[in-house]
Amino acid sequence: MAVTIFCVGCVLVMLGISFIGSFYMFITGDALSWTYSLARLFIPWIGLLSITVAFRRGEHIAMTSLRDIFPQPVVRTLKAVNYVVVGIFALLLIWYGTDYAIRSRDLYMVSDQIQIHARWVASAIPVTGIILLIHVLCGVNLFDPPDVLDDVDLNVTREQLIEAGLEPRAGDSRGASA
Amino acid sequence: MTSAISVFLVLLLIGTPIAVVMVMSGLAGAMELGGTNFLGIIAERMFSGVGSYLLMAIPYFIFTAELMNRAGLTERLIAFNNALLGRIRGALSHVNIAASLFFSGLTGAAITDTVALGKILIPAMKREGYTAEYAAAVTACSSIIGPIIPPSIVMVVYASILHNVSVLQLFAAGILPGLLMAAALLVTSAILAWRHDFPRHGDTSLRTAARAFLPTLPALLVPIIILGGILAGLTTVTEASAFAAVYTIALGIFAYRTLTPRALWESLVATVQFSGVVFFLLAASTVLGWFVTRSGIAREAASMIATVSKDPIVQIMLVNALLIAIGMVIDVLPALVVVAPVLVPAMVQLGFDPLHFAMVMILTLNLANITPPVGMTLMTATQIAGVSYERAIKASVPFYICHLVVIIIVSLWPGFILWLPNLLK
């Protein structure tokens, strides 16, 4: 949940900055250079951390049709293999991501005064690896994707049908005819 | 190359997430080229894969779609299209297709369209005597216009992984094929309505039509903000998508007064979740792409296609058949990020226009939404309709054929795709 809240915050801040930049340019015709540089800092964090959110929810895409035709013991074994593969992937992210972040030398120039070291942005890689590894070690259900309709309320109210013109309003005689 | 292909196939078949499959097979290939020294590309490539300025547009577009969905726009779009097409035989079938066309200018995701329109229109169609399988088929088959008419997340992803066409060119190139898809579906729907004697609604007065149109108007400004701004050169794709998201929030709160804090929060969470899926595929594609570029697979693919035939028509049809086959087992986005780095350079090497082939590829892979056995969009529609998947597949055949005809037309007639982008140059 903490990662989701962090990502939601990043999306809102990035959207706010992008909008200010676009609106300013639309009104004045001049660009606010800091908005572009500042908003860019957020995208690797959103991009990488949101991966863990999707994973946690089982929303990653996998080809499970073949796996699921096997008997249960085989399916369980294949799931265990998948946990190991994702664990290795997370470890690679932590190891090489840390190395990449430490070796980063670039500076993000937000303005003449404000410069942000690329290390802060590149740290998103090992942090993503750590969160993913925690999910794997905690045995989170990574491999049974939720149904698309799980979070959808399929109940349609009469008001919605009236709004859609599919039910007559009070006093309206229009209806379907063959 | 052998180890990369082996790792790819084994992991794919045992149900490993496709993004992880791409990373692991890319790393296996990299190790084959330069040993463990090349394993470090995982960090560098994945970071660059999600670091581009253009990619900010992805969460913004998803957010706009989620907001539209929760702000009660769907009902207004249906009412407007019902006022326009209600008097024609097979009214709700046509309304379904036309509403999808309007929806595609707002969201660009087939599954969003299917859920939003399907949950209202499918039960309504069943009540009017349409079979459940027909209602599911027309809903799913029309919703795949979404990724073709801009804004389109698939197109943003394509432009991010292959830098030979801009997202602006793709957006412009998608308009005519999208309209052609809608026209073809409407014709098919009209023929089926006539054959099966589907019901129609009573005549609509001009006043009723206007009353249905006015509440829809503010929402219809969203595609104008996005497309108008981009195509007129006033904004970049990212700026336009940010504008659209903020405008939609304002619309939901002040104009429609339907956007509650809870709906806003749910939209943001859904945005993060779906962005995660897209970004994972993008980041992973850069690792596999690194290996594909260095391994010469694209060159080999080009020579393999050329060996089969020297005729460009046969070549593109062959590739289309391959893409449909891939779409039978893999969803649109992962299929795109896996095959595009191999096929696009190969086809460009064979002399195909990059923009023409990009659109043909997107259109063909887009069919994966409704192609069994995966066909996620059709499967979702069948769940809403409460009908078996097999019956819905059968009912979708006429619409599937009309999508195939559109693909054949755009494959053989590059000018149809290139006309609008060339006009805007």
Structure description:
The complex is a heterodimer of chains A (178) and B (425). By secondary structure, chain A is mainly alpha-helical. Chain A is built from 6 helices and 3 strands, in the order αααββαααβ. In chain A, β1 and β2 form a beta hairpin. Chain B starts with a helix and ends with a helix. Chain B is globular. The longest helix of chain B is centred in the middle third of the chain and has 35 residues. At the A-B interface, α1, α2, α3, α6 and β3 of A face α1, α2, α3, α4 and α5 of B. β3 of chain A pairs antiparallel with β1 of chain B.
- Per DSSP, the total helix count of chain B is 20
Mean pLDDT of chain A: 82
Please give the share of residues in helix of chain A.
Answer: 55-70%
* Percent strand of chain B: under 5%
Q: What overall geometry of chain B do the principal axes of the alpha carbons give?
A: globular
Largest sheet of chain B: none
Shape of chain A: flat
The counted number of beta strands of chain B is: 1
Uncertain parts of chain B = none
Q: List segments of chain A where confidence is low: pLDDT < 50 over at least 5 consecutive residues.
A: 174-178
The end-to-end distance of chain B, rounded to whole angstroms, is 40 Å
Backbone CA Rg of chain B: 22 Å
Largest interface here, residues on each chain?
A-B, 77 and 92 residues
Nearest-integer average pLDDT of chain B: 88
Beta strand % of chain A: under 5%
- The spatial strand order of the largest sheet of chain A comes to 1-2
Please identify the structural class of chain B as seen in this structure.
Answer: mainly alpha
Provide the helix percentage of chain B: over 70%
**SSE pattern of chain A, N- to C-terminal:** HHHEEHHHE
> What's the count of strands of chain A?
3
Q: Element order, helices and strands of chain B? A: HHHHHHHHHHEHHHHHHHHHH
Give the SSE map.
The complex is a heterodimer of chains A (178) and B (425).
Chain A lengths: L1 H27 L4 H24 L15 H32 L3 E3 L5 E3 H5 L1 H14 L20 H6 L12 E2 L1
Antiparallel strand pairs in A: 1-2
Helix pairs in contact in A: 1-2, 2-5, 3-5
Chain B lengths: L1 H12 L4 H17 L6 H9 L7 H14 L2 H13 L5 H14 L5 H18 L4 H12 L9 H9 L5 H30 L3 E2 L4 H26 L5 H19 L5 H35 L1 H12 L3 H18 L2 H18 L4 H13 L9 H10 L3 H24 L1 H10 L2
Helix pairs in contact in B: 1-2, 2-13, 3-13, 4-12, 4-13, 5-6, 5-11, 6-7, 6-8, 6-10, 7-8, 7-18, 8-18, 8-19, 9-16, 10-17, 10-19, 10-20, 11-12, 13-16, 14-16, 15-16, 15-17, 16-17, 17-19
